[in-house]
Amino acid sequence: MPAYYDSIIKGVSTVMISYSSLNGQKMHANRGLVTHFLKDKLKFRGFIISDSEGLDRITSPPAANYTYSVQAGILAGIDMVMIPNNYPEFIGNLTLLVKDNIIPMSRIDDAVERILRVKFILSLFEDPLADLSLVNQLGSQEHRELAREAVRKSLVLLKNGKITSQPLLPLPKKAPKILVAGTHADNLGYQCGGWTNQWQGVSGNNFTVGTTILSAIKKTVDPSTQVVYRQNPDANFVKSNKFDYAIVVVGEVPYAEMFGDSSYNTRTWS
């Protein structure tokens, strides 16, 4: 995970804990990774923030034992807790746990120190309001080009095989006939994934600006190239049309948070 290590080394200020689990243990209660690995081993000096109601979801069903969840999360190393609803319950439980010495005051001091340090570095006490001078540049063409560059540099080509003496890719723009198939070839929502317009993402093309893979292929090839799209073509259709190339675009449907959890995550951490 070089990108994560590099971010810590360069001084990233905050890390949000995910809803996911590792070997059956919720990340919001995983002291081994949050404190021992991230804070101690990687020397992370910023603060750890929970996801929304992340402490509630330590138990199943959520908030089944909220006092335990607060204890487990704070002792795991979470410094700032996102409470969207019943914050007095959190304050009451945390105060009681500290008074009973179940959560040591040193843990609270560590959290406060980390949070204040980041705020001082960002000058939030002197200038707490955001700078709006650049707001009109958000989503500009320059930003879109930068996003495109990031995609180009992060995509992974597993293998560029050969059909003759030449690599298969890039495909010739003047190929006579190309088949484009698959559930994700003409679905912008599937390309964008979860948290696109809605919590679990959307399906379709009529919700935001973007280019589907199918439309990009049609725009890129030579005008003489025939591009045929079938989401799920059968063998007879493929054989009878005598395509020069087939581009198949498949993937998962969009999801976010616990809807992407695997019940069989047995990966070990070292």
Characterization of the model:
By secondary structure, the chain is of the alpha/beta class. The protein folds into two domains: 2-121, Glycoside hydrolase, family 3, N-terminal domain (TIM Barrel); 144-257, Glycoside hydrolase family 3 C-terminal domain (Rossmann fold, 3-Layer(aba) Sandwich). It has nine helices and seven strands. The strands form three sheets. It has a three-stranded parallel sheet, covered by helices on one side. A two-stranded parallel sheet has the order 1-4. Helix 2 (31-41) packs parallel to helix 3 and helix 3 (66-76) crosses helix 4. The longest helix has 17 residues, at 105-121.
The gyration radius over C-alpha positions equals 25 Å
Question: What is the H-and-E element order?
Answer: HEEEHEHHHHEHHEHE
- The stretches of 5 or more residues where confidence is low (pLDDT under 50) are none
DSSP E strands, number: 7
Q: What is CATH's topology name of the largest domain?
A: TIM Barrel
CATH arch. level architecture of the largest domain: Alpha-Beta Barrel
What class do helices, strands and sheet pairing give?
Answer: alpha/beta
Main sheet: strand order:
6-5-7
Largest sheet: 3 strands, parallel
Q: Tell me the fraction of residues in β-strands, as a range.
A: 5-15%
Briefly, what CATH class of the largest domain? Alpha Beta
Keywords: Glycosidase, Hydrolase
GO molecular function, one term: hydrolase activity, acting on glycosyl bonds
Pfam family, one: Glyco_hydro_3
Domain Glycoside hydrolase family 3 C-terminal: 155-256
